[in-house]
Amino acid sequence: MTRLEKRELRWGIFFILPWILGFIIFTAYPIIMSFYYSFTDYSIVQEPFWIGLENYRTLIKADDLFWKSLKNTFYMLGFGLPVNLLVGLGLALLLNMKVKAMAVHRTIFYLPSILPEVATAILWVWLFNPQYGLVNAILSWFGIKGPGWLADPAWAKPTLILMGLWGAGGGMIIYLASLQDVPQELYEAAELDGAAGWQKLINVTLPMISPVIFFNLIMGIIGTFQFSVQTFVATGGGPAYSTMFYGLYLYYNAFQWWKMGYASAMAWILFLITLIMTLIVFKSSARWVYYHTGGQ
Amino acid sequence: MYKKFLSVVLLGVFLLSLSSSVYAEKVKILYWTGWGGSELEDLKKIIDEGFNKKRSDIEVETVTIFGAYEKLLAAIAGGTPPDVVSAVWDSQLASLAARGAIIPLDDYIRRDRIRSSDFWPRLWQSFKYEGQVYALAATTNCQFTAFNVDMVQAAGLDPKKPPRNTKELYVWSQKLTKFDDKGNIQILGYRPSGIALWGRLFGGPNVLYDEKNKKITANNPKVVEAMEYLLSYNKFLDPTKYTAFTSSLGNYWSPENPFFAGKIAMQDYGEWIVQFGLKYNPKLKYDIFPFVTPTGARDYTQFGGSMFCIPTGSKHKDEAWEFIKWITSPEPMKKIAIAFTNMPPRIAVAKDPDVLKAIPVLKLTIPLMEKGTAFTSVSMPVWQQYMTELSAAESMVINGQKTPKQALDDVTARIQKELDTFLARQEKR
Q: Best of A40, A46, A141, A241 to disrupt the B interface by mutation (most B CBs within 10 Å)?
């Protein structure tokens, strides 16, 4: 390294120091400590007490609610996430057409995703109220008797999925950016070969935006595993634990029942599951994600 | 000359030290309260006038953590708890005491000769965990069932003869419930809920926990019977319709309060109903009756409230105690009782004519506290989780996912395991 490089390095480090310190103190340290706590019985108000693998053993072998919450979360992953991704993509495709006042339309569809989660959750609870809610009122115009939505254990999860679509604009905006990046000449070439709308979508658009689908999928997986705010507000995990998701159960253990050690163990199991899921998706990505910039 | 100068200096130093001891700075203590809104304003006024102005040595700074009660846990964990706190419910006291987060007050109580016999005996019991006193209270609440007199009359029932047992309660509820033409609930008569309460109304105050043997007894046949009773309301109150109705109700602490807005004909309340009535709907005529039981015993009540305690990490424990001693003494207690319309924890204050006049419902609740079967949170370290499990079990039973017996067996097994683990680890520490 030359003297100049050394000096630049020093200044560089100096300028990113606030971030590095913040990261070490507020992110890295808690993460490391949570790993330690996961092997202890830690009630927050008392010193942690080493119990080895006991938390992990109890979770896996003896906690039905742990498995139930995991099952509920995988339900959201299996049904909620694909629906959310598809709707986001669909919206993006529609908003990529050349019609009047497109900027306004895009803004309108994006807006919901930046509203505070808690406020919108409360709003949706009202809309889905089986007796007074707007949703069932509209259904009744068509002679459909609406279900109990959040009040019914069988309907609570699908209702939360529907509520989640309200935020599909977040994914949409990313799709939209990449849709505009698809080179026009590819469409022209496809048209010369006689491709119609649907074929262009399958053979040009989707491969070209696959990196973004991939990105949204990964973020969606992580987000689904952390899913808790809406349920905390809307249902509190009920009725009958039908919306007790992993993130919510973790919160209850940590902050309501004072089992921070147990909750830390849950967090690390969650990390492992998320990691494995992400790795699987990454591995599969070689087959379906196409980077047109030449890289892999 | 030099000597004279020295003596003047010395005299000056002496005078200075004297004055500094006279004008010693007040010790500031931090008090976290759980009260908010107008109650907080009243409380602050009572503390300022009765304590801060009169005490030359201590000044209390009152801060509310209303609606953000987890802050206490975070503050304790961070080693910076308040000096004194009352944002601790009876349901949390045992949990905090068992984990060493608050200190026992026995030495102070002995030293200052606070007499337990001045307080309601059952309430005093609830200050204790494993034989030691961890808190005192400035307020408490005795609960009962209230009904809307006009609605009862309109339904052809006699408001002079309120339900005496669980069967009559069922009949009243059925007659008072009104549906629209689609079968939706318009006015709810009454739906008993809370198996922690009803289990004890059916089986007595100790039915949920065998304290001596440290055994969870949620599946006691009496509790199962109580759960079956709660379930029996499904016959006319479809659970989905019921949830739809309750989730549409207005805020409890507002003029939209469902009882005072005429959406619910009968509801459980405590002495605060007096204050609610004055604030939200002075025209509504209501009357009250004690909780019913299957046997017709009518002397049951549930009570609770916030507890004044001193966190282990408090930096001014003695001053904190001085404050607790003052706020639980007769004079401020009386003021708070009248302002909040609560049951005063001291027997003599509760029977004070001014208090009785301001809180007429005490006529029913004082005898309940005095001679009745009054119960509160069970003093055990995993009570909060026990309650969560009980209400989840109730929800599963009402929604037809488990039978009462099965649901309660599951709770018993789960919480027993929690308790055993906790006790075993506490021993090893």
A: A46
Domain with B69 in it = 27-141+303-375
**Are the CB atoms for A237 and A231 separated by under 8 Å?**
yes
Q: Which residue of A has its CA nearest to B397?
A: A240
b/e per residue A33-49 (b: at least 16 CB within 10 A): ebeebbbbbbbbbbebe
Residue B240: which of A43, A148, A238 has the nearest Cβ? A148
The C-alpha atoms of residue A93 and residue A179 are separated, in whole angstroms, by: 8
- ipTM entry: 0.75
Distance CA B297, CA A61 (A): 45
Q: Which residues does chain A have within 8 Å of residue B385's beta carbon, measured at their own beta carbons? A: 256-257
Phi-psi label, residue B287: left if phi above 0, alpha if psi -120 to 50, beta otherwise: beta
CA atoms within 13 A on the CB side of B215: 8
The predicted model scores a pTM of 0.81
Q: What gap in Å lies between CA B389 and CA B399, rounded to an integer?
A: 15
Tell me the torsion sign for CA atoms B330, B334, B336, B340.
Answer: positive
Minimal Cα–Cα distance from B401 to chain A, Å? Answer: 8
CA distance B429 to B427: 6
- Please check whether residue B187 is in contact with residue B176, taking contact to mean a CB–CB distance below 8 angstroms: yes
Residues 386-415 of B with CB under 8 A from A: 388, 392, 395-396, 399, 401, 410, 414
> Phi and psi at residue B193, in whole multiples of 5°?
-145, 160
In this complex, do B399 and A45 lie within 8 Å of one another by their Cβ atoms?
no
Q: Do B100 and A45 touch (CB under 8 A)?
A: yes
Give the residue from B72, B73, B237, B387 with the most A CB atoms within 10 Å of its CB, the best one to mutate. B73
Residues B36 and B102 in one domain: yes
A248 neighbors A228 (Cβ within 8 angstroms)? yes
The terminus-to-terminus CA distance of chain B in angstroms comes to 69
With a cut of 60, say whether residue B22 has pLDDT above it. Answer: no
Domain at A64-288, CATH homologous superfamily:
MetI-like (1.10.3720.10)
Q: From the centroid of its chain, how far is CA A213?
A: 13
Quick one: pLDDT at residue B15?
A: 58
Helical pair A117-127 and A134-141, crossing angle rounded to 10 deg: 40
pLDDT band at A295 (very low <50, low <70, confident <90, very high): very low
Please tell me what DSSP assigns to residue A2.
-
* CATH code of the domain containing B40: 3.40.190.10
